[in-house]
Structures are given as structure tokens and as C-alpha cells.
Amino acid sequence: MKRGGSDEAKRRAGEAAADAVDDGQVVGLGTGSTAAHAIRALGRTVDSGLDVEGIATSYQSRELAREVGIPLTTLDDATPDVAIDGADQVADGDLIKGGGAAHAREKLVDAAADRFLVVADESKLADRLSAPVPVEVLPDAREPVAASIRDLGGDPELRAAERKDGPVVTDNGNLVLDCDFEAIDDPAGLATDLSALPGVLEHGLFVGLADAIYVGSDEDATVREQ
Ligand SMILES: O=C(CO)[C@H](O)[C@H](O)COP(=O)(O)O
């Protein structure tokens, strides 16, 4: 699915981050249209002889990696040296992710990596995180978690599928509540509160995880070390 700014800006961010991958490294392969540019660029470097292995964060990134010829491994067998992943919003180096409902596996792989590179076009940058926070819940936990989110000041909405009747079902077989907290003053505190709710598999607040943000525009890509 395509979200955010121009495809050219996303391509510049994704390709710049892929350029930072060294021979012999294991790479976490993020999900979304910006991360897909990085995966395609890595596929081209594999074609030209670079020895890298990927760890997919979703069905989408696994299929794309297979298509472009990146050999795959898993967290059972390897630790990612670097992960490259997109974001829905970036503020002060913290992120909201999960626009593609892949944030549970993304957080697992991105947090495991020695270096986590975020790839984003300029439209994702904000002064404060304020986009709805995706919260993946076990199907049985939908109502209790929604009630707890309201108690925390959020407005949860079950994510509906686009070309299927009913809700989005994640790669893990769960549901997603998009939770609007408006401007988030304390992302770390909210992340802790959401993680503590029974039935929450994972939420899309990525606090203090990013090592560098690759920001693409229609002209170039710049790197902001965190
Ligand atoms: O978190 C994600 C998927 O769960 C994506 O990385 C995020 O939604 C950004 O996507 P895009 O690069 O297509 O704008």
C-alpha cells in the first residue's frame, strides 16, 4: 500500500539506506512502499555480488525479497546487523508505525538489529507524534482493550479491510485498533501503558529504537543520526 509523499522521495530514502549495507551483513527487511525501495536496491546489489541475507518483517517483505533474489534467514538462526524500515510518522527520532499492520514483526526485527535505519519521505516528519497508534490485539481482546484505550484517553477504531468485508486480519491472525490520542506528550509512557494491556500483542509506538533517519525528498536524501 502507498502512503505519504512522492514515490521519488521514498525511493531516494530507501536506496540511500540500502547503500549503507555492507558485504556479509544480515538485514532486517521492513514493510511498506519506502522499505520496498530499499529491498529492491538490495536485490540489485545481490545480483552484482554482495553477500547479504534478509530477515522479513511481513508476508509482503518476504515475497518481495524472494522476487528480487535476497536469500532469507530468520531470527532463529541470525541476528540482523542492520534493519531498514519505514514509518508513518517521525518526531524526535520516535516513530509511529503499523500503517501496513506489520508493526509486531517489524518491532521484533528492528529492535533486534544492531542498527535500525528508518526510511521516510519528508511528509512523515512532525514536531510531535499525533497520528493514530495501531494496536494489534488478539481477536478475543478487542472490546476489553478498546475500553482500556478509552481510559487512557484514546479513541480506538477497528481497522476495516479494503478489498474484503470485515476487519483487517494481520499476518499473525489478529485485529488492529487504530487509536487516536491526538498529540502525544509522553510517547514512552504511552508505550509502556499500551504494552501492559492484556490481549495487546504489540503497538506501533517505536520509542528510542531508531539509530538513523534517512529522509528522502524529490531532490536528495539526508541522514539524521539519532
Ligand atoms: O509500519 C509500516 C507497515 O506496518 C510501514 O513501514 C509504514 O506504514 C510506512 O509505509 P510507507 O513506506 O508505505 O509509507
Structure description:
This protein is of the alpha/beta class. The protein has helices at 7-19, 33-47, 59-68, 103-112, 142-151, 187-195; strands at residues 26-29, 53-56, 82-85, 89-91, 94-96, 115-121, 133-137, 155-158, 175-180, 200-203, 205-206, 212-216, 221-225. It has a six-stranded mixed sheet with strand order 2-1-3-6-12-13, with helices on both faces. Strand 4 (89-91) and strand 5 form a beta hairpin. The longest helix has 15 residues, at 33-47. The two termini are 28 Å apart. The model has no long low-confidence stretch (mean pLDDT 97). It binds ribulose-5-phosphate (5RP).
- Quick one: overall form? globular
Q: Average the pLDDT over all residues and give the rounded result.
A: 97
Q: What is the percentage of strand-forming residues?
A: 15-25%
SSE run: HEHEHEEEHEEHEEHEEEE
Which CATH architecture of the largest domain is right? 3-Layer(aba) Sandwich
- Rg, rounded, reads 17 Å
- Helix percent reads 25-40%
Biggest sheet layout: 6 strands, mixed
CATH class of the largest domain: Alpha Beta
* Distance from first to last alpha carbon: 28 Å
Ligands in the model, by name, code or SMILES, are: ribulose-5-phosphate
Protein name: Ribose-5-phosphate isomerase A
Organism: Halorientalis regularis
Keywords: Isomerase
Function: Catalyzes the reversible conversion of ribose-5-phosphate to ribulose 5-phosphate.
